[in-house]
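Hi V.,

You were right to ask for the full record rather than a summary. Here it is.
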Amino acid sequence: MSSSLRSRIQGGTLVVLAPVLLVGLFAVPRVLQLGSALRAIIQANYISIQCAQHMQFVLHGLQTAELEGDSTRALPGLRNEFSHWMTIENQSLTEIGEPETAKDIDTSANHLFDDIAAARPGTRHDRQFDHLFSETNRLIKLNQNAIWRNDSRARQLSQQVIFTLVTSLLVAIALGIALSWAISNAIARPLSEVAAQLREVGESNLPVRLGHQRLRELEYVAHSFNQMADRLEYYQRLNIDRLLFEKSKIEAIIQRLDDGITLIDTAGKVAHLNEVAALVLGVDPADSIGKPFEGLPSDAASYLQIREDLRRFKQDQGRERHGEITLHVRGRDRSFMVHPIRLDEGKYAIGTLLVLQDVTYVREQDRARNNLIATLSHELRTPLTSLGLAAQILERKASTNTDDERKLLATIVSEFSRMSDLIDDLLDVSRQPHPSLGLRWARFDLVQMVKELGRRFVTQATEKGVALNVRADVLPQIYADREKISWALSNLIVNALRHTPQHGSVEIVARSVDPALVRLEVSDTGPGIPPEMREQIFERFSQYAADGQRTGAAGLGLAIAKEIVDAHGGRISVESNLGHGSRFLVDLPISPPSAAPH
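Predicted structure:
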């Protein structure tokens, strides 16, 4: 019958613990008993020393009063105090000779007190005082010696206990080493046998089973292992069919994707590609599997471009790279974005996944939007030109106008010029996916520009019932395109006025951030912007309305502002709490970026 590993370990542990428990049963009561006795004795000795010291203090007071001729008045109080401490001392007698000393002190003190009460004024009792001082000192010395003796006894006992504990500990350690050696040998031998059998299982695919084990726990392990082996044989037969089914399912899903998928292994060979990828690359899937991607039998321009993009991707050590190709697939022109993705599993490379993402719908939408913007800009130019001519005619007759009318006319002419420039820039934005803004660099006064913009929008803010405040610190002149910066800030102000309700407020701030940066801030008390929209609002055609209604804008204002700020080497961001307004921040360098013309 196999013995239990638990019973062996428990038996060995009990053998090791037995001497330790015996020593504990012997030592702990003695230590506790000694501690209690020592505390009681030391406490009584300490009280006796205090009583003797207080009695000496009373005797000193009485002797001083006798020298001053005031002993008769001081005697009653001092006698009562002496009797009080004498009573406490009689209750704390612990040492040999202490009762006799205490009785002698009590008797001598009473005689002294009686003699002083009956003596004539001026009589001295120095001999009696000296005797009492000597006896109280003897009492103090007696208790001090007792304390020292108790301390010595305690040290001796503690040394005995320590010796006993150390001895028992050494015995327990010796027993533990011997038992652990015996138990480890008893355990290691069957474990080594089981490990050897399991190693045979790992090295071969044969259905190995474990036999009878001498330890009960290992017998359980062997039984469980044999059951597991039976199940593994069953699952192994099922897994092959399951894997084939899953592989077919994944291949069917990949084949139905509108995006092209090509898997290239670490050796550079094509491991899989779907129908769309084969059409884009101009190859036959059956002839391409297992062949190097660099040597696929295709002369298609799209394949050559994708192959070059993949080479640059490998040269850049897997840094993200995107290319775009356009070709005729499945009866229509389609655009594909090339996304090479490196596949890694921990430290090991699996290969490269080449994704040809179908962006045809996105490009069609971009073209539709750009065409719409170009058309609207063209249609706006005609009435804007008429408005400019009318303003020029009115300007020639300005001599007959009032001052307010001349100011309004000057504003119309200024806004006409600015709107013409805006339409030109809007056309630039619509013509290119990433337009390069033509900046006219010059040094100008940013504070003056901010104040002019504030005056320009005062009328619009007043009509809407919104308070418009302008606050500008003293700032150095900056080197930038004044018209473009004014355009970007105007877009932010218009955006703030559009979303600020009646009786709200909009604030424009210009201040210094550090010696190299200035900051423009446009704050409003509108509905705020949710966190998930704060990055998207700077994208072209992105719109957001807190009430779910139309914003009344094309969604280009913030995108244009970001383009302008980025072109100046600055940064634009937004801070907002939903329901508590928003604050747009524009940081601009005072000195021009290195790429700007000086």
